[in-house]
Write a structure and sequence with these properties.
19 strands, binds flavin-adenine dinucleotide, FAD/NAD(P)-binding domain, 4-stranded parallel beta sheet, 22% helix, single chain, alpha/beta
Length: 336
């Protein structure tokens, strides 16, 4: 259901913006206490329920985007007694009148430019974060795996046979997807500014072992390099130009580096939070990312990684998540 042409009838109650893990979990928590309070869920996507961490395991498991959907937005909303406004973007919050401005998120929608409004008694912002695309990684040439729809398009391309994929960014997600693609039979080059994967969260002793482990698995890890440009070639392949970081080389003696020719590039260069709505809602957004390691005997110990608990603290929200990739670091971190 998209935004109707006319003003959406003012439906007071709880309004939740965002149908990712956070939005749906808030609904579960409210419904566990109160079956009847009116809830409206507004989301720029379809609202389908899926577990986002599965996106970095699905390709080797030969799962399509549809396979990962646990319930469509429509079915999940009906089951939770929630009014769903899917494919609808909130563009502004007015806390004085307690109203939201809405627009269809579908560019093809004839009402794309027509605003509607909806009232709320309580408002929950659960809008997640967006991928960062540095200038050298133009959005139209690279993939990201932060949303099931985009993931689905990539999965379809990769399902046609073994391909060469360059992944830029060896953090949690980049390293996980590199491993998943390798398992699925693809040739993988993982590029990072740092000398080793996960360098922003682990000590050098641990990350150098991870670099060795990643390389010995068959991933071509290029540490200490920066991607400078990506160009589409006439045969459809992508040319990835990259250079050693100035700090790591003496530019007078550095040899020119042959660009990589690959089928796909995945950008895994971090996420950013759009502060427009929180600011309009009067929420001062101060997000701190804190990571630490937890040893949990119940967690199955896999080859490389261990459990990470990522806590995002802000004045508005608290999210606790654990990374599969991090779990696999357990054997390495137990040494420290
Ligand atoms: C590939 C990958 C692997 C991961 N692996 C792990 C893991 O192993 N362990 C772990 O703990 N975490 C993992 N994470 C992180 C975790 O999945 C995310 O932190 C979590 O899913 C974020 O959920 P969210 O609901 O906050 O945001 P999102 O899932 O981004 O949802 C945001 C929602 O808000 C909607 N929205 C945004 N702006 C608007 C607007 N203006 N109007 C209307 N709707 C809007 C969007 O349409 C969407 O429905 C992983 C993330 C990725 C990408």
């Amino acid at each position: 259901m998209s935004v109707e042409n006319s003003l959406v009838e003012s439906s007071k109650g709880i309004v939740i913006i965002g149908a990712g893990l956070a939005g749906w979990h808030v609904i579960d928590a409210i419904r566990a206490k109160d079956k009847g309070i009116p809830i409206t869920l507004i989301t720029a996507d379809s609202g389908d329920r899926y577990h986002k961490p599965m996106l970095t395991m699905a390709i080797s498991q030969k799962k399509s985007a549809a396979d990962l959907v646990r319930a469509t937005g429509i079915d999940a909303a009906e089951a939770a007694n929630v009014k769903l406004l899917a494919n609808t973007q909130v563009t502004d919050v007015d806390t004085t009148t307690q109203q939201l401005q809405l627009i269809s998120a579908l560019r093809s929608d004839p009402v794309y430019t027509n605003y509607a409004t909806i009232g709320y008694d309580k408002l929950v912002l659960a809008m997640g974060a967006h991928p960062i695309f540095p200038k050298s990684l133009p959005e139209e040439l690279v993939w990201h795996v932060n949303h099931i729809e985009r993931f689905g398009q990539l999965q379809e391309k990769l399902a046609t046979g073994s391909q060469h994929v360059a992944i830029v960014g060896a953090g949690m997600v980049g390293t996980e997807i590199a491993e998943d693609l390798l398992k699925a039979g693809h040739q993988v080059t993982l590029i990072d500014l740092n000398d080793a994967p996960l360098s922003q969260m682990l000590p050098p002793k641990a990350t150098s072992r991870i670099a060795q482990a990643v390389n010995s698995q068959g991933i071509n890890f290029l540490g200490g390099y920066q991607v400078s440009a990506i160009t589409r070639l006439s045969d459809g392949k992508l040319q990835v130009s990259y250079e050693a970081l100035a700090s790591a080389t003496d530019s007078s003696t550095a040899e020119p580096i042959e660009p990589l020719i690959v089928d796909h590039v995945i950008a895994s260069t971090g996420l950013t939070v759009d502060d427009k709505l929180p600011t309009a809602a009067g929420v001062e957004l101060t997000v701190a990312l804190v990571s630490w390691w937890m040893r949990r005997p119940c967690v199955p110990v896999q080859p490389i990684f261990m459990r990470l608990v990522t806590v995002c603290l802000s004045m508005a929200c608290r999210v606790v998540t654990s990374h599969r990739c991090a779990r696999r670091l357990l054997p390495l971190l137990m040494m420290y």
